[in-house]
Amino acid sequence: MSVYQIGEIVSLVFMAIALGMDAFSVSLGMGMQRLRLKRIAIVGAVIGLFHMIMPFIGILLGQAISEQIGQYALLTGGLLLVGIGAQMVFSAFNHEAKRLAEPVGFGLIFFALSVSLDSFSVGLSLGLSQVKTVIALLLFGAASMMLTWAGMILGRKMRGLLGVYSEILGGSILCGFGLNILFG
């Protein structure tokens, strides 16, 4: 492996963690509903799956767009990451109470879709930058699944102390990667 490939994988690991932070912060609140461990395992697996499906769709669209717009692809990808990261940071300061859905059936699908929408946009920007698709998807799915499990289990133990801070951290990491693409 070259230094460039190692650097790309490390960047993808940090990006996967940043994307999973959104699921982590929402899972903290969901974990306060005192769910059974079996339900927590199912919720984490479904969220991990959605964090693989949504960026895959985004990557496919990003690659299709990349062939048509050429030199503007990198600029667009960087701007998307900065925008997504900024949205995550600003939404952390929105103190309106969010009604949590029950993580069963359509509620679980809605929950997984809502926390993985940002990964669609990240997938779009990654498709524009020609990233290694399989590695990115596996990292996104694994990180979001583990962070969802951690958030739900932690939510059982404590009452929402880290929720806002994890979303700010995740948004800051995405902004940093976007700025690195733009100016690095």
From TrEMBL:
Question: Do the record's keywords include Transmembrane helix?
Answer: yes
Assigned GO CC terms: plasma membrane
InterPro entries this protein is in?
A: Mntp/YtaF, Put_MntP
Q: Chief localization class? A: membrane
Any idea which UniProt keywords this protein has? Cell membrane, Ion transport, Manganese, Membrane, Transmembrane, Transmembrane helix, Transport
Would the keyword RNA-binding turn up in this protein's UniProt record? no
Membrane-crossing segments per the record:
6-28, 40-66, 72-93, 105-128, 134-155, 162-183
Pfam families to which the protein is assigned, alphabetical: Mntp
* Top-rank taxon, per record: Bacteria
Topology versus the membrane: Multi-pass membrane protein
GO function term, MF aspect, one: manganese ion transmembrane transporter activity
- Compartments reported by the entry: Cell membrane
Which protein family is named in the record?
Answer: Belongs to the MntP (TC 9.B.29) family.
The family database entries (PANTHER family) matched by this protein are listed as:
MANGANESE EFFLUX PUMP MNTP-RELATED
Q: What does this protein do?
A: Probably functions as a manganese efflux pump.
**UniProt-recorded name of the protein:** Putative manganese efflux pump MntP
What phylogenetic lineage does the species belong to? Bacteria, Bacillati, Bacillota, Bacilli, Bacillales
